Structure formats: structure tokens, C-alpha cells
Amino acid sequence: MSIHSKLMKARLKLQVADLKKSGHNKFAGYKYFELGDFLPTIQEICSEVGICGTVTFYTDIAVLTVTDIDDATQFIEFKCPMSSAALKGCHDVQNLGAVQTYLRRYLWTNAFEIVEHDAIDSSAGAVINMKDTKAEDFI
Fold first, then answer.
1. Range of the structural domain that residue 51 is part of
2. If we measure between CA atoms, which residue out of 14, 15, 26 comes closest to residue 53?
3. Are 52 and 66 in contact (CB under 8 A)?
């Protein structure tokens, strides 16, 4: 079975899993998936179908490589540009950890076609008072 077939099989298995969103955006009033909501299930499914995902961070991009366990020459890469964070009260390493956590979530969400609430559309036209707003209000 090709890596594409295995990934599709994994996506279909995840689609019927009973995933619960534990993240909550208080500002826009919606729930979202955190890594812990889906990654353990994805890891189990990947093991069942014979694929393995690894995330690598480079200076300019983050890459999730999904590899066929039986044939490491077969793989699919999902890429995302690196970003930065400037969370209040955090030092550089904590901001780096925040970036890596978010990018990991976005890469896995992309690779497994996990449907999320569209924060941009839902908050379009909203007036935002940035004075008392924290970064986690947008996450």
C-alpha cells in the first residue's frame, strides 16, 4: 500500500474517532482542538496503518514528515513557514515553545484534514479593544 493510501486510511479512521475540543477562545467564543485532543488518537492510528509522523523545525520553516514505516523511501511532507510569538511575561525560550506547539498543531491538523472553526470568518467585523486583550484570547 502506498504512503498516500496509508495516510488516507488514517484520515478516515480519525474522521470517525470521537474527538473533543478542549481549547476555548474566550474572546471570540468558540472551542478548538489542542494537540492533546487529537495527537494520541493520531499516533494510535498511525501505528495501525504503518506510518509515522515527525516534526522538524528549521530557521524558516517547520516540516511534518509522514513516513511509511515499511518503506522509509515513501514519505509526504507538510510545510509551514516559521513564525514568532511575543507572549506577555514570557522569555524567549517560552515564546519559542509556544511557536513550536502552535506549528505542530497546525501541521498535524493540515496533514490529517482536521476541520477547525474558522476564527477569521467568525470574528470578521468585530471591534477589538486591544487594551485588555491577551495573546491567549486569540488562540
1. 3-113
2. 14
3. yes
Please state, as a whole number, how many other Cβ atoms lie within 10 Å of the Cβ of residue 61: 13
Distance CA 4, CA 10 (A): 10
Say if 23 falls within a structural domain: yes
Q: What is the mean pLDDT of each run of 10 residues along the chain (139 residues)?
A: 97 94 88 93 98 97 97 97 84 87 95 75 47 45
Compute the distance between CA of residue 134 and CA of residue 139 in angstroms, rounded to an integer: 10
In a domain, 107, yes or no: yes
pTM of the model: 0.80
Q: Which of 37, 85, 79 is nearest to 56 (CA)?
A: 79
What is the count of structural domains for the chain?
1
pLDDT of residue 30: 86
